[in-house]
Amino acid sequence: MTTLNGFPQPAQWQGKALPNILSRLFQVENGHTLEVAKRHGAYATIGAQLFDKSQFELIELVKDSGLRGRGGAGFPTGMKWSFVPRGTGKPVYLVINADEGEPGTFKDRLCMARDPHLLLEGMIITGFALGVRTAYIYVRGEMLPQITALNNAIREAYAAGLLGENIAGSNYSLDIYVHRGAGAYICGEETGLINSLEGFKGQPRLKPPFPAVSGAFAAPTVVNNVETIMAVPYILANGAKGYRQFGTDKSPGSKLFSVSGDVHKPGVYEVPLGMSYMEFFELAGGLKGELLGCIPGGSSAPVLNADETRKATMDYESLASLKSMLGSGAVTPFNTTTDIPKYLQTIARFYAHESCGQCTPCREGTGYVDRVLDKLVDGHGKDGDIELIKDLADSYEWTTICAFAPGAAWPVQSFIAKFRSHFQAYIDKNPAKAAPRELVAQRPGAFW
Ligand SMILES: Cc1cc2nc3c(=O)[nH]c(=O)nc-3n(C[C@H](O)[C@H](O)[C@H](O)COP(=O)(O)O)c2cc1C
Ligand code: SF4
Hints:
Ubiquitin-like (UB roll); de novo design (two linked rop proteins); 3 domains; four-stranded parallel sheet; 11 strands; globular; binds flavin mononucleotide
């Protein structure tokens, strides 16, 4: 049995057991079924271990564990839960963000296909801690195997008394619905997701108010990533200390990293936070060719050059010190054969296509960068184009409703700062590079 990536993760690495908090059932045949999952310990926490605790104790436990959101921003999970106001008379909703649109990220889809019951168990615990009666899993529409696996698991859980009224004989009741999105990157942004869940256009809302105070249907709402919630059963079963046996002091626990690009064994690996990127590449079969750089946490994360990559460790603090981020945990190393301007062109085209269009700097700026990069890569780059691209990215970095725009600016700014000579080389090949700049024509077939 292989994982979706085709390369099963070894149980041990350099003499030490690798954590399997999240990936325990990834390689177990029929691990997605209730029968097999239960044989491996699923729902063991759904009984006295959960229902004897108060909501306050559960939130404190998750705070003490140091668990941080795995959707991209790395916000402390227990703290987010503590923001939910009590006694407002409104329901509290839990929404699982299973949109997973960040280029290079493919971990949540593996979790949902291989171990949907771990997600449901995490949702029951979270739901009880927050007083949730109704919860949603917002899944990218094209993830059909995952949607089927989730719906089957939910059906099995209802039949076994693990969902619905009086879960496992307790006073707690929870209903879970799978909601299919239509497949837009911006619907992964939590307020865009909530708009889409409510049946509106998937366009982000201004914050504040934050969803914890006023989210879905104007009620307090906690939005958490799939992987974040799948870590919760382990924390309840093993305590904050048990979770902290992995990772570093400030970045405790394990994380799923999806690695693609120039490694021999691309795929999803669960490793303790704090592992060095170079060691991680070895785990992923080793690098192909000579390292030129690495995108350390999804396409929005500022790129690292080779020296920075050699220094970096896979935790929030190391990447912040290098002015990048762990993001969604999508790791993409690339070697010296990479055509950097073409690489950035692909990323820029994605952001131009996915901008929801509400904010002028984002809508116009991402499209403009895309067109100038197209022109440069087509051999028509002019003196001043590099500065133009950088100025455009600077102009939309912090001037918009949501974090899409800074996430679109950071790859542009960092690729230019670290690999400028690669862009200049394209310009230098154009004999008319010093001629006055013409208007950058709209690319045929452009989306705006
Ligand atoms: C443009 C954009 C896309 C996002 N896409 C996702 C996504 O696909 N999945 C996800 O969990 N979080 C995504 N996020 C982050 C969410 O807004 C939110 O922070 C996250 O779901 C919170 O869960 P966490 O605290 O468990 O990480 C995205 C953010 C932005 C700005
Ligand atoms: S920053 Fe971009 S994606 Fe976000 S709301 Fe504005 S236009 Fe939409």
